[in-house]
């Protein structure tokens, strides 16, 4: 089944006709004969979409729509209201109530089924974004939504000699607080500054489907991919209308450009676009939080490992070397013990900033764990890697860290370096381990120094963990503090 649809109608014949048509399109159909029965059926079956008659024994279709939209459990369920005859005022009243669309008997099956597919696609996409946002909030990564939104940008694209396109735009400007611009169809695909929030493609009486050709190109463009699309068809363009919905249009006016109806649908699409933008941004923030260290803002181990694997694969394909630097702050435990964890955090943040300031944009910097940082440098041979590591040690040793209370603290750095060379079959994880061993060799060698992994065999005490310094000794490699200011 492609979805569950609740059909609400007091007339059995109407329910049967819709059930047959929807079942033939592989929808599961549940039925109700009144508004109260529909509300009970909603709780029981949780349908994906509701089609209701405008007149029910116990309430109107609009009243049912209002009741469902007020219920948080069903607020996002698409609702289509079916009217017995075409009445512009009734149609606008139903749309203003919150109905996602209005159909008129006899129902055009082609347009109805295309409209249902479009509504269900939009519902599923929004539900997926909402699910990811809920997960992000459950992980404690949620923030309150901004209370202020900038005016939306609406781009109107007339085709087929649409008369009074400028008049339509002027009417929208009078009714909406948003920016309305008119763009010729020939220029519609040209990127121009900010992407529009909503694009309105309006077919004119002389149109030969120019807008229908334009629509999938706008949907596929990276510039307008997330813009909401409203398609306006002329009354005799039912096939174009159905095709537009299947090609990605978010909304449809099937009887030409009616200013009032377009205003209602624009407000709804602008609101949905802002909601989806917020959810999408929240999801991206959550993804960043999942791969970032919250203290330093650097990438974490979860991100670094697959990145280094890709770096190694590319280096092998291009037959170029790459370097891995594993660095560790000297005597960092003493910083925490003597000055507190806030001071330790300040040292870590300072080191991360200095790493970013002294490395190239393509170099990956990640917090590997505790006071240990890993740097992956593409297209880097041994001399360049050694020079970079020595510069990092010098920068850290010569520039004291200023703690929150004004204390200046000199902390040094030890670095182990390993090189991935063309033709070398050493896996990235093994290379990281080599750099880590070189780091411990640097600690044993006296700290505040750089050791290359290829040369650690000759160093004594490689397998011994570095011993803590004697507390009464104050050498060049121990943290030194001076008080400045208050």
TrEMBL record:
Indicate the segments forming the Response regulatory domain, all copies.
Answer: 4-120
**What is the designated name of this protein?**
diguanylate cyclase
Residue segments, region Disordered: 461-486
Listed EC numbers = 2.7.7.65
Q: Which GO terms describe its molecular function?
A: diguanylate cyclase activity
Which PANTHER family does the UniProt entry name for this protein?
DIGUANYLATE CYCLASE DGCM-RELATED (PTHR45138:SF9), REGULATORY COMPONENTS OF SENSORY TRANSDUCTION SYSTEM (PTHR45138)
User: GGDEF domain: which residues?
Assistant: 320-455
Q: Which reaction does it catalyse?
A: 2 GTP = 3',3'-c-di-GMP + 2 diphosphate
SUPFAM superfamilies reported in the protein's UniProt record: CheY-like (SSF52172), Nucleotide cyclase (SSF55073)
């Amino acid at each position: 089944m492609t979805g569950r649809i609740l059909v609400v109608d007091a007339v059995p014949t109407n329910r049967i006709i819709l059930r047959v048509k929807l079942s033939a399109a592989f929808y599961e159909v549940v039925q109700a004969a009144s508004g109260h029965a529909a509300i009970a059926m909603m709780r029981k079956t949780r349908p994906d979409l509701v089609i209701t008659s405008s007149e029910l024994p116990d309430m109107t279709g609009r009243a049912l729509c209002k009741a469902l939209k007020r219920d948080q459990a069903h607020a996002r369920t698409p609702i289509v209201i079916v009217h017995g005859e075409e009445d512009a005022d009734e149609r606008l009243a139903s749309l203003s109530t919150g109905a996602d669309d209005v159909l008129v008997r006899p129902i055009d099956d082609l347009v109805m089924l295309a409209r249902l597919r479009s509504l269900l696609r939009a519902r599923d996409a929004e539900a997926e974004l909402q699910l990811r946002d809920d997960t992000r909030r459950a992980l404690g990564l949620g923030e309150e939504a901004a209370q202020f939104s900038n005016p939306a940008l609406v781009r109107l694209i007339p085709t087929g000699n649409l008369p009074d396109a400028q008049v339509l735009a002027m009417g929208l400007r009078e009714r909406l607080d948003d920016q309305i611009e008119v763009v010729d169809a020939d220029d519609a695909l040209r990127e121009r500054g900010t992407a529009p929030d909503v694009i309105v493609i309006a077919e004119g009486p002389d149109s030969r489907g120019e807008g229908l050709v334009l629509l999938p190109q706008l949907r596929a463009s990276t510039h307008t991919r997330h813009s909401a699309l409203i398609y306006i068809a002329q009354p005799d363009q039912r096939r174009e209308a159905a095709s537009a919905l299947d090609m990605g249009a978010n909304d449809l006016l099937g009887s030409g450009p009616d200013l009032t109806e377009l205003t209602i649908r624009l407000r709804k699409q602008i609101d949905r676009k802002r909601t989806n933008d917020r959810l999408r941004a929240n999801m991206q923030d959550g993804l960043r939080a999942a791969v970032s260290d919250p203290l330093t803002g650097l990438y974490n181990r979860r991100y670094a490992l697959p990145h280094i694997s890709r770096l190694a694969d590319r280096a092998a394909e291009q037959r170029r070397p790459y370097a891995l630097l594993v660095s560790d702050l000297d005597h960092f435990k003493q910083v925490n013990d003597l000055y507190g964890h806030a001071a330790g955090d300040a040292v870590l943040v300072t080191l991360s900033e200095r790493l970013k300031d002294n490395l190239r944009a393509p170099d990956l910097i990640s917090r590997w764990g505790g006071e240990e940082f890993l740097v992956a440098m593409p297209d880097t041979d041994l001399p360049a890697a050694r020079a970079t590591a020595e510069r990092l040690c010098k920068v850290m040793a010569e520039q004291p860290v200023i703690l929150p209370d004004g204390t200046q603290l000199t902390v040094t750095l030890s670095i182990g370096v390993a090189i991935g060379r063309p033709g070398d079959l050493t896996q990235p994880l093994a290379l990281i381990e080599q750099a880590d061993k070189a780091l411990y060799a640097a600690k044993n060698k006296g700290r505040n120094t750089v050791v290359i992994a290829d040369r650690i065999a000759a160093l004594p005490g490689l397998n011994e963990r570095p011993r803590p310094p004697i507390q009464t000794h104050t050498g060049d490699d121990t943290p030194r503090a001076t008080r400045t200011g208050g």
